[in-house]
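Inputs:
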Amino acid sequence: MLDLLTYEFMQRSLFAAAMVGALCSVTGVFVVLRGLAFVGAGTSHAAFAGVAFGYLVGWPPLPLAIVFGLATVWITGWLEEKGRMKLDASIGILYTTTMALAILFIGLMKTYNAEVYGYLFGSVLSVTSEELRMIAGLSMLVIGAIVLFSKELYFIAFDQEMAEASGVPARRIFFLLLTLVAVTVVVSLKTVGAILVFAMILIPSSTAYQLTHSLSTLTWYSVMIGVSCSVGGVVLSSIWDIPSGPAIVLLATLLFLVAVLYSPKRRRHVLAGS
Amino acid sequence: MSGSSKPIIRFEHATFGFPGVIALKEISLAVNSGEFIGVIGPNGSGKTTLCKAVLGLMAPLGGSLRIFDCSCEELRCHHRAKIGYLPQKGVVDRNFPVTVLETVMMGRYGALGLLKRASGKDRQIAVEALAHVRMDGHLDTALGHLSGGQQQRVFIARALAQQPQVLLLDEPTTGLDITTQCNVVELVQHLHEELGLTILLITHDINLIRSRVNRLVLLKTRLHAAGPPEDVLKPDILREVYGKDLVITERDRIVVEDYHHHHH
């Protein structure tokens, strides 16, 4: 197995997987606590529509993915804030609309384009050095923003109204969080794909949620779980010659199920009930 | 009452609501530093709107409201931090992963401002706030493992950690048993006396607070009465607001039958 590590493509993909794992699991903590799970799913489909549009008109796909993703989260956030619509309904509409756009753009392409499908299902093993630099740069940016605004992000995740009332600029922080979710999704598109990135955001933090009662501990657990599942998934995929995206997600799901079964929270409930 | 000349909060003929829906109409009220004010009124009388207004989250449609001598638009984050707020008790998710200390530390965040990290001093302020509500023995306990009354004390500590001048409590006793209700109100009175906090307490339970407050404010869209409890709790004034369901018992207790079924 060790000789695998001597290949440059393998080093690149492990590095990419580790970074995406860390990024998704940190962002995921706030997504899960603030109840934005569905926003992640909606954004990933919007970003995929951006990629498809890029290939259709011959523009770079990733910047367009960011534009589509950001437009979706901002419209969603704006609709929720205005109280016009519940978040789940508006994201549901945008989710399907952007997916319809993606299918339309693919349909309009004259020829079959395998690269577009690469963004749908992800292929961490084919990450180029240039993509790796992009992933590293944007990951640093997002994680840096989360570290800088962590206290405000925790507060709005716990209770946005109370945060606003006690002097935290909660609205702006909420839009910052939505923006970070969109960027996280786009960064992860190439490695885990538009369909599975959602799982990478939700599963590590949901697993950590089973294991602790402290916000800071939750975040550290989530990162450790995210990174080890991503790296472990890539290793397994190359040993068994299976697709990397599903390997990462299924490994994370397995760990989640184990955590649910052996959760100290659950044990306490059982004890309390007996 | 400490005799500050300038009121902390001043409503002048202030009207609140949304176009077409008036929640509070032409309210005039000055809250002085160090007062303990109880705000009462039936459901839908605008109590929660008053709360939002005091927090600076709602600008008046007409008239004026000045908080710390600022209009709503001028109100900055550091002003907001001077008002400690205990929201109506929602259902706390038992599993939300937050400890008692982490919850109370959040009270420091608004006052600290963006990009500043909480220091040892902030932690000390949070622990002191917990000591004021006698919960300093539970720093690392999960919030969800506490009883309703204990959680309420932790949230009061969170408000105290802001080092506020005003403590605004929105129905702090709802959903608690009678003993716990008394404990919470006693705690608020203690904080009023000990820390010299200005208190605005919104409640349904007139009897629980009538002997403790300096002034009562009686709302039903308009401000029907404001003054010492004995001046406000008069049968004719109360009947005007609560309707005929109001009963004053021989022991001078006020019972409003079925007020939960009233709508605005």
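Residues 170-209 of chain A form the longest helix (40 residues). Flag for discussion at group meeting.
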